[in-house]
Amino acid sequence: MFISMGECSRYSSHLSKRVVEESFNSLKYMFTQWALPAYDGVKRVEGGIALKRLRQIVTKAVVAKGKKRTEERVTLSPTNKPTSILGCWVINHTCSAKRVGKFVEVTGKFDVNVWYAYSNHSKTAVFSETIHYKDKVKLHYREGEISVGDDVRVRVIQEPNCIEAVISSCGTKFEIVVEREVVVEVMGETTICISVHPLDYEEDWSLNDESSSSSSSSSSSSSSSSSSDGEGRYVLESSSFPDERPR
């Protein structure tokens, strides 16, 4: 039995059409059985009891943040002409912050101490100076710029630290490079939404009463205590000396 090319083509076309129709019917069944009821349920929940159980709470939260790292070159003039620098450290750092427009202004100070040799390495001394600084940190808002208060917090990530200390080209001054990094946070009022589920009954808490007892007697050296095992049964524990048994 031979099948012509035309009949084979008509059979393939009929088979493809049947597969497409079966796939479409399957999708239609899934949509009518699952998708539509779920969508109707969402609409009923949005317009019914669920919205009545929503509450808005006004609270304070972080609404803007900013971060800045600074490397500052400081020039110091010691009383003696230095020959070499033996050490440098930065201490006593304090800072405060306030909001100024779209920025937070961080004001602070720290002490720089330089240990150096002079008089052709025959003597040493320590030179100290207080350095004041003022940094402007740009704010970044999560949900666009809003009107916020002046409650600003500053957190120091990197305390002022000396990363370079050299004698200047003129030979009479110190050039100190100090790095520091701060993060600022601006607090403001925001609204959060919660779902309230009223309880029509009292919650059942499984609480086991714990008790303990102890007794002592001058005529005998014995003691007893009551304890509970993991299954709620009480076990009596006692101990006494072998020579002095209670009568």
From TrEMBL:
<keyword id="KW-0946">Virion</keyword>
<feature type="compositionally biased region" description="Low complexity">
    <location>
        <begin position="211"/>
        <end position="228"/>
    </location>
</feature>
<feature type="region of interest" description="Disordered">
    <location>
        <begin position="206"/>
        <end position="247"/>
    </location>
</feature>
<protein>
    <submittedName>
        <fullName>Spore coat protein E</fullName>
    </submittedName>
</protein>
<dbReference type="Pfam" id="PF10628">
    <property type="entry name" value="CotE"/>
</dbReference>
<keyword id="KW-0167">Capsid protein</keyword>
<dbReference type="InterPro" id="IPR018901">
    <property type="entry name" value="Spore_coat_CotE"/>
</dbReference>
